[in-house]
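User: For documentation purposes, I need each entry recorded in a consistent format: the amino acid sequence on its own, followed directly by the corresponding structure tokens. There are two entries in this batch. Please keep commentary to a minimum and don't merge the entries.

Assistant: Recorded as requested. Entry 1:
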Amino acid sequence: MEFLTKLALAFEHGGFWMWPILLIQVSSIAIMIERAYALFVRRKISQTQFALGFEESIRRGEMDQVITKAQAASAQNPVARAIAAGAFAAKNLGGKEEIQGKMDEVLLEENAHLDHRTGFLTMLGNVATLTGLLGTISGMIKSFAAVAFANPADKASLLSAGISEAMNATAYGLIAAIPALVAYAILQNRANRLAEDLNQGGLKVYNWLSYAYEPLTAYQIKTANAKSERNNEINA
């Protein structure tokens, strides 16, 4: 209880600029919570491992099975969307360039989701620091202006009040800025690891699709020729 009382007094003595810093702090905390949930709870470093489950089906040319399996798992595994896009391109004989283009399109979109709002933490941290500095300057200006026209007996109290406002604003600005900057480093590192895992899984699938593309094409041509011969025999 005593701590809260001291905190309330410090906030009151900090002057007007304590309120903008409070708004910045609340915004940064909201972003930290949302990003931590998105990157640590909803997303796992398991996309490469998930992609390994498609190797046998791709090598056998079972594109329909690959697409169905990938689409069913796309909600929990972002790499599944890239797998489905690449398999669909391979199924339609789009070529290696089209397979890569379709997969890259999905991977770029998924990687962009990893960085949503995280960059705001550095901005908010810097703004909180600068706002605290602005509160410091404002408090010092107010202090010296009051002292200049005050009675000698009141100068000490007015000067100490102005310095108190300046120091409280500086301290609160740093209190709001430091967690935001630390959280940015942690979240950015997590996002980079998730992106590496996602891209590595996508690259493995692309390599399998690329290697299986020519055999798959030959197999499809052979199957089509066999069907055509059977049809000709039936018609004859």
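Entry 2:
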Amino acid sequence: MQPTQSADEIGVEFERYGDGQPLLLLHGGMAPTEYWGPVIPEFEGYGAVVPQRPGFGTCLDSPAETNADEVLDREVRYVRALADAVDGDPILFGHSYGALTAIEAATATEVEAVIAYEPAVLPAEYRADADLADRMASLVQNGEPEEAVKRYIEQVLHPDGIDDLDAWLAEWPVWPDCVALAEEVVRMNRSVEQYRLPDRLDVDTPTLVLSGTGGPDFLRQSARAVHDALPHSRFVEFDGVSHSGPAEAPALIAAEVDAFLQN
């Protein structure tokens, strides 16, 4: 990790791969920086920048003590500081909560473009009944953080059900270390449940919004809503790709991203 400090004295840490235009890769909820491992080789012409997200970092880090209503602001300030710490106008590429952060950061940060894969935004009708944060918090308070993380996986990563969750977890590279992130994910989910998508997002930067037909329907719906709220946006949906699209189909998604950036 390369530690550095921005002009407003926010400390940032990141790994950089390559010397091209900085491509800031912002991971989602339960994914550590290793999430971008399959993606980085597809962007050899860029300088991939993988930061330590505040409150997450590696799965062995302790969660940050931050209230839910401060989480998004904290993340946005961090991304802005990161953008200031690298040379040139960066490209922001975010997945899930990282995609929401990228879009919000771009409202007041000089960036070349934004790539947002299924931003963590809830449709109004879905948000009214959203209770994942409460259910996870109850399990954490009862001393069951593993069960709390399982509820997140079932609702966000496998909304259509999974035959053998324990077997799937046994193959998941970050399990069970990321159980330590349960409290931070609770705060993040509360932040998502509180977020209201405006009719218009004040982002002048060209933005590519991506989604996959294999992910949760509510995130596909939200991705389209985010696209509609952006003044300069293109929307692309990948058939059969899940919410983990960037890591699941890196070559397919990278080709679409590269075509967008070259236009």
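Summary note for entry 2:
The chain is about 40% helix and 15% strand.
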